[in-house]
Every structure is written in structure tokens, then in C-alpha cells.
Amino acid sequence: MRELNERLAALAFIPALEHDDTYDGETVAYVEAFQRSRGLPLTGVVDATTWERLGEARWKLGQRLLYDTRPALRGDDVAEVQVRLAQLGFNPGRIDGIFGTATAVALAEFQRNCALEPNGTVTKETLQALQRVRATNTTRSLVMDARDAAGLDLATGGPVVLCGDGPLVHALSEKFRGSDLVKVVTDTTQEDAAHVANSLDAALVLSFQTLEHVEGIHLHYWASYRSHSHRGELAASSLASELAHLPGVPRVEVTGMALPILRETRMTTVHTEHDNISEQVLHQAITAFESVVSQVIHRTNS
Predict the structure, then answer these.
(1) Residues pairing with 161 in the sheet
(2) Are 195 and 284 found together in one domain?
């Protein structure tokens, strides 16, 4: 409890002199405020994901050496490097706070442009160059957002990955049983499902989760660190439009979030949360999702 309070206070979510060792209503509110800032579900509970993001948030740019390693380095310092590179026109991939290969390649290209050793490592000299070289217009679109919005970096020829739990994913799995263009990943964590999707270079990931406290159907796409997936937002919005026009379907919401399945996947991903929907709604929802999968498969084969 003390470490939690110290981390929240360090991030200015708790006034430095106004916390104790009691997990009370105020603490819940502070935790929810942090979760909101990180695109996480507002539970007020410090689960594994929330604790992990609290740890990442403590890192400031310049406090450690950043480079491509496994497991990948994660933190707000990594996200800041990615944002700075993207503002300068170097594509680090998704702004996710994860120092992966795309970030290392973009950083090496930046280093070459600055006559530095292109080693893809944030050394003292590289950090000084990043701080010295500023984009002339920091309000413009980040390079990957601009490419995404322009329809560049089109989807790969990999399969559609269905993952998660609940009746929707199982019904869709039956619809596409035997298809080489649909891969089903169930009974695993979101991180492991994302690893499978990345290894397959999937064209699309549809993730599902049944939650009793959720009212209706919630569709989530990646959004965090001043960036979001335009293609994910479009896919989620298109699904929401189809679902909303079906009779008997409950409220449908579309929200950008930073859930593990959205953060860890490199491709367009939509995560669906729903309650215990009726059989009628289930069959209608399956039709909408089946249509999206079929469109991606058709586009992949074209």
C-alpha cells in the first residue's frame, strides 16, 4: 500500500502530503484517475496491468539507456522517444511505450541524419540530439498517424485472428472452422494471443471478452500516448454501425483504450466486451462480425 501511494504521489495523482496506508474511497478515486490517463478500465483496483503501467510511468527520458532488447524496455521515456521521432518524420511504429525493432530502426535513421553512430540506442549524444532537434510544428500529425490516415502501410496477407472468450468468439470459430485464413486463439492471456497474432503477421485481430458489469456491447481500439489507431477506430466504428442497425441489439459504444491485446498487437485490432447477451442478439451480432471477417479475407485474397 505504501509503495502504491508513493508511485501515485510521484506521478502527482495523490498530493504528496495527503496519503496514508489505507485503501479507502480516495485511493480508489486516485487509482481510477491513473487508469483513465492510461486508457485502462476504471475499476479502482490495482490489478497486474495497472501495477505494471504504474511502474512504466515512473521512467523519465534520460534516466536509463534505451535500446532494443528482449524482453522489450517499456515506459513513458520510450513513448517520449517515439513521439519525438514521429514528430520529426521518422516512423517508430505505434506510440506504445515499447522499445521494439521499429523504434530502433527509426532511431538509427535519426542518428544517421545527425552524423551519429546508427546503433539504435538512446545514448547521451543521441538524447542531446533529440532534445536539440525540434519539429517546426509539434501540433502536426505524427508520421505513423498520417500514414495510417492516408491508407499507407496496408494490411498484410496474414490470417484473421479470433481470440478471447465467450459465445461470440466460439460461434465465429465454428463459422470459419477449417479456413486457413482464420486462426482461433482461446484459453490464453491477451499478451499470448497478441504474440500469436504478431508471429502470424495477422491482417486483423478480433478479441472478445464477456464481462458481467458491462452493459451492451463495447468496441475498443488502440489509443494512448497522444496517438491512436485510425484503422482500428474505423473498424470499430464500422462494426458499431452494423450492430446498431440490428433489431434488439443493446447499446453499442466505441472507445479508444490501451488494453493489453490492443497495445501488444502490431496490426488493426478490435476488442469487444459484452455482457451475457441473449441468443437473438448473439446471432445478430455474429452476422456483423462474420461480415467483417469475410471482407478482410476477400481483400487478402484479391
Answers:
(1) 183, 205
(2) yes
Which amino acid, one-letter code, is at 240? Answer: A
Sequence-separated (6 or more) residues with CB below 8 Å from residue 188: 163, 196
Quick one: CA torsion of 74, 78, 80, 83, rounded to 10 degrees? -110
**CA pair distance 67, 123, nearest whole angstrom:** 9
DSSP SS3 for 87: helix
SS (H, E, C) 222-280: EEECCEECHHHHHHHHHHHHHHHCCCCCCCEEEEEECCHHHHHCCCCEEEEEECCCCHH
8 found inside a domain: yes
CB contact at 8 A, 14 and 8: yes
Q: Answer yes or no: are the C-beta atoms of 272 and 217 closer than 8 Å.
A: yes
User: Are 168 and 47 within one domain?
Assistant: no
Would you give the distance in Å from CA 233 to the centre of its chain? 12
User: Phi and psi for 209 in degrees, rounded to 5?
Assistant: -150, 130
Residue with cell 480508489: 28
C-alpha cell at 160: 484473421
What CA–CA distance (Å, rounded) separates 20 from 37? 23
Are residue 30 and residue 140 in the same domain, yes or no? Answer: no
**Would the pTM count as exceeding 0.85?**
yes
What pLDDT, in 10s, does the model give residues 37-85?
A: 999 999 999 999 999 999 999 999 999 999 999 999 999 999 999 999 9
Parent domain of 26: 2-57
Q: Distance between CA atoms of 228 and 216, rounded to whole angstroms? A: 24
